[in-house]
């Protein structure tokens, strides 16, 4: 088993799906969280000056989705065949497209609020309606077993509900999926021990 070191801020953010995969699979890793005051120093040392990164022995991987997909593959969480893998990939990429619409780095509060309102009113319903249809009456998004797409939904839906507490009220099946992931014993144990952060 390689030596794994995941580097990110002390928030869920773009590293949490990888952390869920580590937790669920029991694969050991170092959760290297960086304080903001140390970030500028660390940033200069990185090829693309962004985190998360995953060190796999001496190899450094960047891009949160590539990291999570690699770990999911190692852990048997990508889907049972090529089509299921593509379905899981599409769900993760779609969720990311929508999550990236939020003005995470906007400094002007008025501009930020306006974009937030627009995303919640005009974009997020499209995401939730689509995911709701894909899930239907199934237990998991893809096939008949849990995949990293379910983990990614569970992680991103925390951020959505933190931003808008009512957002999942009309989507009981999507809410139930999030809760199903969070009730998996190893995920529940990780949630219990992780730092409590807004993002
Ligand atoms: N597409 C990249 C985006 C990475 C990214 O935007 N990272 C942010 C944190 S979420 C970052 O490093 N921000 C600090 C900075 O750019 O100074 C991924 O998914 O990993």
Layout of secondary structure:
Blueprint: E1 4-9, H1 16-25, E2 30-34, H2 36-44, E3 53-56, E4 59-62, H3 64-75, H4 82-99, H5 109-135, H6 148-163, H7 172-183, H8 185-193
Helix pairs in contact: 1-3, 1-6, 1-8, 4-5, 4-6, 6-7
What does this structure look like?
The protein has 199 residues and is α+β, with helices and mostly antiparallel strands. The chain folds into 2 domains: 4-76 and 186-193, Glutaredoxin, CATH 3.40.30.10; 82-183, Glutathione S-transferase Yfyf (Class Pi), Chain A, domain 2. Helices cover 57% and strands 10% of the residues. It has 8 helices and 4 strands; from the N terminus they run βαβαββαααααα. It has a 4-stranded mixed sheet with strand order 2-1-3-4. β3 and β4 (59-62) form a beta hairpin. The longest helix is centred in the middle third of the chain and has 27 residues, at 109-135. The protein starts with a strand and ends in a 6-residue tail after the last helix. The model has no long low-confidence stretch (mean pLDDT 97). It binds glutathione. Glutathione binds next to α3.
- Beta-strand fraction estimate: 5-15%
Helical fraction equals 55-70%
Total helical elements: 8
Radius of gyration over all CA atoms, rounded: 17 Å
- Give the tally of β-strands: 4
Strand order of the largest sheet: 2-1-3-4
Distance between the termini: 31 Å
Overall geometry comes to globular
Q: How many structural domains are formed by the residues?
A: 2
Structural class: alpha+beta
CATH architecture of the largest domain: Up-down Bundle
Here the CATH topology of the largest domain equals: Glutathione S-transferase Yfyf (Class Pi), Chain A, domain 2
């Amino acid at each position: 088993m390689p030596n794994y070191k995941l580097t990110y801020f002390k928030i869920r953010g773009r590293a949490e799906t990888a952390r869920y995969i580590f937790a669920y699979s029991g694969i050991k890793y170092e959760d290297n969280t960086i304080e903001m005051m140390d970030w500028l120093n660390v940033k200069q040392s990185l090829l693309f000056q962004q985190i998360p990164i995953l060190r796999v022995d001496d190899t450094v991987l960047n891009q949160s989705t590539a990291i999570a997909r690699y770990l999911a593959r190692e852990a048997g969480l990508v889907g049972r065949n090529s089509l299921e893998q593509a379905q899981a990939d599409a769900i993760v990429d779609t969720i990311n497209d929508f999550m990236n619409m939020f003005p995470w780095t906007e400094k002007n509060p008025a501009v930020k609020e306006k974009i937030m309102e627009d995303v919640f009113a005009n974009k997020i319903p499209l995401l939730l309606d689509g995911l709701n249809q894909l899930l239907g009456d199934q237990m998991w998004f893809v096939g008949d077993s849990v995949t990293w797409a379910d983990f990614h939904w569970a992680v991103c839906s925390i951020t959505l509900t933190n931003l808008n507490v009512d957002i999942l009220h009309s989507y009981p099946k999507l809410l139930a999926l999030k809760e199903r992931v969070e009730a998996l014993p190893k995920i529940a144990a990780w949630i219990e021990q992780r730092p409590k952060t807004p993002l």
